[in-house]
Structure formats: C-alpha cells, structure tokens
Amino acid sequence: MCALSAVSLVIHAPPPSSTPLERYVFSTAAFPSVPSSEILTSFTGNPPPVSDLPEQFRATIARLSTLSSSLSPLPPDCSFNLMMELRDDAGVEPPLGPTTPWIAAEPGLQKQRKTNADPSNEIEAQGRSKMGKDLGGAKATPVRNVESGAFALEMWIEEGQGKFDEYPG
User: Fold this and answer.
1) Stretch 58-73: mean pLDDT
2) Is residue 117 classed as helix, strand or coil in its secondary structure?
3) Measured between alpha carbons, how far is residue 90 from residues 86, 113, 125 in Å?
4) Distance separating alpha carbons of residues 79 and 130, to the nearest angstrom
5) Is 47 exposed, middle or buried (0-12, 13-18, 19+ CB in 10 A)?
6) pLDDT value, residue 128
7) Residue 160 vs residues 68, 94, 109, 128, 137: alpha-carbon distances, Å
8) Per residue in 80-98, pLDDT tens?
9) How far apart are CA 87 and CA 92, in angstroms?
C-alpha cells in the first residue's frame, strides 16, 4: 500500500520545450503514518477540531489568488499536469506497470530513490542524472500551513529555473 506525500499542479512551457515553469505543492508529508492494520483505529485524546477547516481552506485559496500577481508572468499556451508523489516507505514500490493507468512523471520532477540498478548500464545512469533537477525550483514562495490536530498540510509555490532562463522579464 502506498501513502501520499504531496499533490502538485505543474505548469509547463508550451511545446516543444515543455519545461516545468511553476509547481504548486500541497504537501501531506506531515500527516501521521499509520500501518494498514491500524487504519480504522481512532486517535487517542481529543479529536481534532474541524470547525475552522473550511475557513482555513478559504483563506488558502484567497492567499493563492493574491500571490499570483507577485509571480513572474507565464507565456501563452502553457499546459499543466497534476502529480501525486508517494512516500518513500521501505519495501513499497509505486503502482506502475503495463496494466495500471498511472504514468510516471518526467525525470526532472522525480525524487532520487534508492535502487539496486546496474551502475554500468549507461542508459539508466543518464536517466538518474536528470532525476530531480526541476524539484525545488529557483524561487519558492510559502503559501500557508493548515493544521488540525495531528494533521498538517503545507502549501508552497516553486518557480522553476526554466521560467527565468527561457522567459525572462
């Protein structure tokens, strides 16, 4: 079973480059990790207050709309994709294969994972050298943290180096 680490909305430059320009990250990495045998077990102590969550999400959307004016402009005809990042739990592999609808992200948007790959395989080595190069961006802007009990959702915007290299100004 895989657990979600983050959901990202990635804005890409128009073809042919399709370089990642912006990445809106909604991180659930701070959520507690619960073994599958304990999923239906209640948390001990006081339940987290949920009454203010709609207001916190509303404030987050308002913050996103005001931050968009402070970001560098995007070129016309951009595209986007929605990425789900999985936690790197030991012994858990992503659900990729010929019969699944999942598509792996571009190498530049993938985190480096520990692997038992053959280091002498030149094609695999080239792919690994590109992994993660577009993560983190050239500029990161914090949006907001939403917290409720043991659950914390962090949000930020990353502007990629390609945005400043290809579309300055």
Assistant:
1) 88
2) coil
3) 12, 11, 23
4) 21
5) exposed
6) 46
7) 15, 25, 11, 19, 4
8) 999 888 776 655 566 566 6
9) 9
Candidates 80, 84, 82; CA nearest to 28 is 84
The owner of tokens 């890409």 is: 12
pTM for this prediction: 0.71
3-state secondary structure of 89: coil
* CA atoms in the 13 A half-sphere facing the CB of 92: 12
By CB atoms closer than 10 A (0-12, 13-18, 19+), residue 105 is middle
* Residue linked to tokens 């294969």: 97
Tell me the residue type at 122: E
The amino acid at residue 102 is W
**CB within 8 A of 117, min separation 6: which ones?**
124, 128
152: which 2 tokens?
A: 């914390």
Task: Please return the burial class of 102, using the count of CB atoms within 10 Å of its CB with bins 0-12, 13-18 and 19+.
Answer: exposed
Phi/psi for 118 (5° steps) reads -75, 115
Q: From the CB of residue 134, how many other CB atoms can be counted at a distance below 10 Å?
A: 23
Strand ranges (E), the chain: 4-12, 20-27, 79-86, 139-148, 151-159
Give yes or no for residue 107 having a pLDDT over 80: no
Residue type, 103: I
